[in-house]
Amino acid sequence: MTVVEHVSRFAEDLNTTVLVTDTDFSAAGPKILYANPAVEALTGHPRESVIGRSPKILQGKATSPFTRKAMSAALRAGRPFHTCVTNYRADGSPYLCELDIRPLRNADGEIEAYISFEREVERRRVRARPGENARYRPVDPGLEDEGRNQLAGLEVFSTPLD
After folding, report:
1. This model's pTM is above 0.85
2. Which residues contact 59 (CB under 8 A, 6 or more apart)?
């Protein structure tokens, strides 16, 4: 069974967007190998249209170059990366996206692919409290419940973004 087949078994019914990419960090960027159906609700792109393309299609002028460089460096080093970025929907409208990206390793410990969990968040207008994810919250409260329930064993979105 391939990585994509394994991921699709648990991700098809999630409301959290799940993408799997290859490991090619050429100028064009990695290619999306799998997208669950939730990608269309988040981005406006039909899932079939993102397969084979780079996640860079979701980036735009307000996507932080610093964050893009930090993400690339972490992933190239085989480390997970958790952040918020401004992405863009198919219609060009921006949204704040929380990303939790992790390397998927084979039995030999080599990185075979990357998995990204994504959800739209909004910035709270309160002072962040250390140790709590107080600065951002999901736009859809159901995604917060999904993170605590179905994705809890994977510890997705568990690192506070203070």
Report:
1. no
2. 68, 85, 87, 88
